[in-house]
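Problem statement: downstream parser choked on a complex file, so we are re-checking the raw output for the calcium ion run. The parser issue turned out to be on our end (a line-ending mismatch), but while we're here, posting the original submission so the record is complete.
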Amino acid sequence: MKYARIWVVLLLLGALVLPVFVVKSLASDGPVALAGPPSWLIGGDTTTYSWQDNDPETPWGIERVFNGNYYGDQYTTSVQVAILDTGIDLDHPDLQANIKWAVDATGRGSPDDKNGHGTHVAGTIGAVRNNEGVVGMYANVEIYAIKVLGNGGSGDWSWFIQGLEYAMQGPDGIKGTADDADVISMSLGASSDPGVDVHNKIIEAYNMGIVLVAAAGNEGDGDGTTDEYSWPAAYDEVISVGATQQDDTITSFSNSGPHVEVVAPGYQIYSTYKNGGYDTLSGTSMATPHVSGLIALFIAINGKLPVGTFSDTDSSTIRGWLHSNALDLGTSGWDPVFGYGLIQA
Ligand SMILES: [Ca+2]
Ligand SMILES: [Ca+2]
Ligand SMILES: [Ca+2]
Ligand SMILES: [Ca+2]
């Protein structure tokens, strides 16, 4: 069977030319490299926000979700998040202690990240608390690095299916045991439905009680009344995550439509990068790991509730808790731009 390619959901300019149907670049914007430690004043934004604190290890997006009261390092419960991406920089000093398993589904032989995208996602989910670099949403999370995208940031859907299979099995190779992933984080997508084979594998993971989180996509046109879709985010079983800016406005690139479930910070996000480095990137790729990490922390604190559905609004399910706890933005109640709103810890 021949599959279309899937891509990271990152805004890119310059060296990598991505198909316009997947990634919409911004003319005057893109990845910004920071030489020093993370700053509140990223990208010339000198506004002081009420949620800022004085902890230099928490990037703005994480502070926003915690409202400047970070507690993602206060729990040690074992929760596994599988990151399906370009791999992870396995010996990154801000990640190494939390990477419990790494596996390659692309046939390259190594899950090490030569791109940087997967390493960036991993830092937002679970960089360690060591008073250096950044700290993740859940600083003691157990990370599974599952490489399903090649070093250029794209991959075959067959690799993605294999990656889901690895996440469902965990390192013991058996489904239904304690080491199966609790959360699968997918900062990737394509703007056409990959079909029943991919959807069936998604449904299988959902039915196992695994929380599935994916980027809503960067094809947004700045118009909340028009719909843009990306898969796997558009599937009912998957939490579709849009991207906001520091002032809680929506990013111009964030997809809108009936599938948007929540939003999270996804603009000028500082996190870990390849070769032991750090970088500042934008995209719904960067919003997604805030949600994945928050759900991991929620499971660490509250145990593993049923995943729930898109329409849940009470705390008896994980998705219901996520929705009911979100900060409503835009028009009152659920809307196609912000979904249920900005996630809150
Ligand atoms: Ca750190
Ligand atoms: Ca297992
Ligand atoms: Ca739109
Ligand atoms: Ca709303």
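For whoever reads this later: The two ends are 42 Å apart (CA to CA).
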